[in-house]
């Protein structure tokens, strides 16, 4: 019986904790969506936000403590002088023209005083947006003089006009604004904002110089991933960035050295095997003609083709340099080859046709896709599209297609599908594997899908 309230309390706590965690995650995701993604922008925020917060706090404390306090003291002193003049006005009625009072006010107190005939006060004027002086003067006049008054701090920029209603006259006083208001506060704010702006400009220039080596390193890595060289790349910037650049250069050298060693080994193997196959062909030519000899010749030719496929797959596209290539012309050549072998083919290309690729390797990639389509279909459609980011080439056919579950498996080396599609009849099962390997060496990939023609669609996409 006692455990039921405990279970209810635990359930409530878990529910509340789950809601708090979900709200925290939502706020975190929203904050991440507002934050910039670039290192340069984030570094600027790291410098700008604390500076702005610090200046805001300093300005607030300055406004509240210094500016308000100084203005209140200055306004109180001016109002005290005006109150003293009112006392002199009341205590010396024998001064009919008030010449003595005006002289004392101007020479001793820095005030200009005159008297107007009794009457109503002017209507209240417009208040400034920042009315600290108006508020402070009004408080001090109400506290020290306690008579009807009217003030104007807007009409004359350097003067403050105060009118006070006496029993038999209206006393008008002109005081310097600097006598009642901390006028040098704007200078403080100007210097604070000015020095911060200079520091911000220096920080922007410094950060740009620090981020530039990182961007160069990223460009060099991206170019290497696309099979291109990064000219004039060398370690620069801070020590950590130089260390990363040196590590990238060493990694690039190791990869290139490994590829060169593999290529040299394959060249030797290719030379030895081709020598043996050439000897076989010569011996078969000396034997003469016959059914058995024709079968052996067919086997030797098939073995030679398989050897070329194996070597092409193992060698990849090493040794070839990327250069600008007219892709529209390359696709047109593929169409001509397909029609020459008795297939119906059409080509279309949209966008700027010149793309930087390894021409022989990339043509082999597309030729493998076209030959794969030609082996199982009668009609082939080749479409190219180039925008500011990618080159996309699609090869559509009207063949039987490939089952959805097998569209990734067919890229594995030496894999052949069942007899329904009769994949790679007499081949090695390396065509699609070689094509994807070449596409990925250019920084892209190959995907398979359904073609609007009813067969298979192979899509090659590489960055430009």
The low-confidence runs, each spanning 5 or more residues with pLDDT under 50, are 418-426
The Cα radius of gyration reads 44 Å
What percentage of residues falls in helices of 4 or more residues?
A: 55-70%
Q: How would you state the average pLDDT, rounded?
A: 80
Which strands sit side by side, in order, in the main sheet? 6-8-9-11-10
Given the helix and strand composition, which structural class is it? alpha+beta
User: Helical stretch count?
Assistant: 11
Strand proportion, as a percent range, falls in 5-15%
SSE run: HHHEHEEEHHHHEHEEHEEHEE
Overall strand count:
11
- End-to-end distance: 72 Å
Outline, from the CA principal axes? rod-shaped
Largest sheet: 5 strands, mixed
Layout of helices and strands:
Elements (H helix, E strand, L loop, with lengths): L2 H32 L4 H53 L7 H10 L2 E6 L15 H13 L4 E4 L6 E7 L4 E7 H4 L4 H41 L13 H49 L3 H25 L7 E4 H14 L3 E7 L3 E4 L1 H18 L2 E8 L3 E8 L33 H11 L3 E6 L5 E8 L1
Parallel strand pairs: 6-8
Antiparallel strand pairs: 1-4, 2-3, 3-4, 5-7, 8-9, 9-11, 10-11
């Amino acid at each position: 019986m006692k455990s039921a309230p405990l279970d209810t309390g635990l359930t409530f706590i878990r529910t509340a904790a789950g809601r708090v965690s979900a709200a925290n995650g939502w706020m975190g995701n929203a904050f991440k969506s507002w934050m910039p993604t670039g290192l340069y922008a984030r570094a600027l925020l790291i410098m700008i936000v604390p500076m702005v917060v610090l200046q805001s706090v300093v300005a607030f404390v300055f406004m509240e403590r210094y500016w308000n306090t100084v203005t209140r003291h200055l306004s109180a002193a001016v109002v005290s002088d005006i109150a003293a003049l009112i006392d002199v006005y009341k205590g010396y009625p024998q001064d009919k023209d008030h010449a003595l009072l005006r002289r004392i006010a101007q020479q001793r107190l820095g005030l200009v005083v005159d008297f107007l005939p009794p009457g109503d006060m002017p209507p209240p004027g417009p208040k400034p947006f920042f009315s600290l002086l108006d508020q402070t003067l009004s408080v001090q006049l109400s506290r020290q003089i306690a008579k009807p008054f009217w003030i104007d701090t807007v009409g004359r920029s350097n003067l403050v006009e105060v009118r006070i209603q006496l029993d038999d006259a209206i006393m008008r006083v002109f005081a310097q604004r600097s006598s009642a208001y901390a006028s040098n506060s704007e200078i403080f704010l100007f210097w604070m904002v000015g020095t911060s702006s200079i520091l911000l400009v220096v920080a922007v220039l410094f950060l740009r110089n620090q981020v530039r080596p990182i961007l160069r390193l990223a460009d060099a890595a991206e170019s290497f991933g696309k099979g291109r060289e990064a000219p004039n790349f060398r370690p620069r910037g801070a020590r950590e960035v130089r260390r990363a650049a040196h590590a990238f250069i060493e990694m690039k050298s190791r990869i290139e050295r490994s590829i060169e060693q593999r290529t040299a080994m394959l060249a030797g193997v290719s030379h030895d095997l081709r020598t043996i196959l050439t000897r076989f062909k010569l011996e078969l030519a000396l034997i003469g003609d016959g059914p058995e000899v024709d079968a052996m010749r067919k086997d030797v030719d098939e073995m030679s083709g398989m050897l070329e496929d194996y070597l092409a797959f193992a060698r990849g596209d090493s040794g070839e340099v990327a250069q600008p290539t007219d892709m529209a012309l390359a696709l047109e050549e593929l169409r001509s080859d397909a029609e020459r072998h008795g297939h119906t083919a059409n080509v279309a290309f949209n966008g700027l046709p010149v793309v930087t690729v390894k021409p022989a390797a990339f043509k082999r990639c597309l030729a493998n896709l076209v030959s794969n389509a030609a082996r199982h279909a009668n009609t082939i459609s080749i479409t190219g599209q180039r925008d500011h980011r990618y080159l996309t080439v699609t090869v559509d056919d009207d063949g039987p297609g490939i089952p959805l579950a097998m569209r990734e498996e067919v890229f594995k080396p030496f894999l052949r599908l069942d007899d329904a599609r009769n994949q790679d009849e007499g081949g090695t099962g390396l065509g699609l594997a070689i094509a994807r390997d070449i596409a990925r060496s250019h920084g892209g990939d190959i995907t398979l899908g359904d073609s609007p023609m009813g067969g298979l669609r192979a899509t090659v996409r590489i960055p430009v």
